[in-house]
Design brief:
The chain has 326 residues and is α/β, with parallel strands linked by helices. The chain contains 10 helices and 10 strands. It has one domain (34-159, 167-324): Ureohydrolase domain (Arginase, Chain A). The strands form 2 sheets. It has an 8-stranded parallel sheet, with helices on both faces. It has a two-stranded antiparallel ribbon with strand order 2-3. Helix 1 crosses helix 9 (294-310), helix 7 packs parallel to helix 8 and helix 8 (260-273) runs parallel beside helix 9.
Length: 326
Amino acid sequence: MVDDDFRLNQPFVGIATFLRSPICQNIDTLDTGIAVMGVPTDEGSPFMAGSRMGPRALREHSLRFGQGGKGYYDPEHRKQYLEAEMSQGLIMDLGDADIWPADIKQTFENTTKMTRKARAGCDLLVVMGGDHAITYPVVRAIEEDIYVIHFDAHADYAPFIHDLQFTNGHAFRHIAPMPNVKNLIQAGIRSLRHSEEMIEDSIVQGNDVVTMTQFHEMGPEGLAALVPEGAKTYVSIDVDVLDISLVPGCVSAEPNGMTYAELRDTLDAIARRTEIIAFDFVEVNPQLDVGTGVTAYLGAHVMVEFLGRICEQPWWIEKRNKRLNQ
């Protein structure tokens, strides 16, 4: 006989929270290790809509990892990751920022307010987009001094023209001059759709712009070394940093991108070198994806594996043990 309380919890069963984590009922009293939130807007995407459905798709595909709530097993390392975080309830899903259609400034304000509350009640914040415009209202809510590492095929450094300044091509022109952003590293840059101004402005203004050729020369460890050891870091991952062949569900995919292993190993190097206080994953467009949802699955895979690597670091283990011993 099967115990009455036993459940298989297959990926297609139940409410699709991220990694089947508990739902936060009141963000004002949040007190958790890892908080996950979505910003399901694509009004900053001037070409094709659909990434507003990204957070939902990422949540759904996250259910394919860590069945049983005991973390996930990596056969390459013969190791269980996220076991304590999942089994001890240290991950909380906050739901989504409130989206106001056709009012991107109010949507951004809602996102900033939610991010500020989330950061006050967690040790690590994970944000799902949406298009890449959402990174700006998230980062402006963070008060600590941070280094920002931006993975993308594009610099997202378009000049402001009148009120045209809140698309997914403008986010990092907003972020770079923030007084608490100590440096911006832009990695994977390669698209032929940049203007000269986008790239040269970023370089002249002191940012580290790392093209794919330069990335191949320096490797994952070299890229991570651009940030001082132990520095607090925000990581922003656009799915189009990966090669076009890997991401059919991305409107802005480009050739000559990173392999999965290159991105994974670079995120691992950053996790080992710095204290990551937040990261986002953006630009998955389920409307364009193939039938299996492979791009959303790949995105969830990146997020889950990155979380696993972060949660193996000494600084995180100290925070985790403090919470578990409260």
